[in-house]
Specification:
Layout (H helix, E strand, L loop, with lengths): L6 H12 L15 H10 L8 E2 L2 E2 L29
Antiparallel strand pairs: 1-2
Amino acid sequence: MEIGSASEDDLSALLERLLPRDDRYRHRHGSPGHGADHLLPVLVSPTLVLAVVAGRPRLGTWQSVVLVDTNVDNPNRTIHLSFLPG
């Protein structure tokens, strides 16, 4: 996604409208609204395929790779990268 110029704030506001962090979810363990964390992958893919050319990600002029994680119950994350020869 394009970052900067408040795009991150806009994304946070959009996710809050689509997946409010309250007690409406049947999945209720953890912090309030944790059920929304389990629905997030329906809207934001948990995986990404990205072309890398000459050791650099092939992105548009204003694009960046962004990790979206709203789950405050698990503050530590591990990101797995796999590279396939082209």
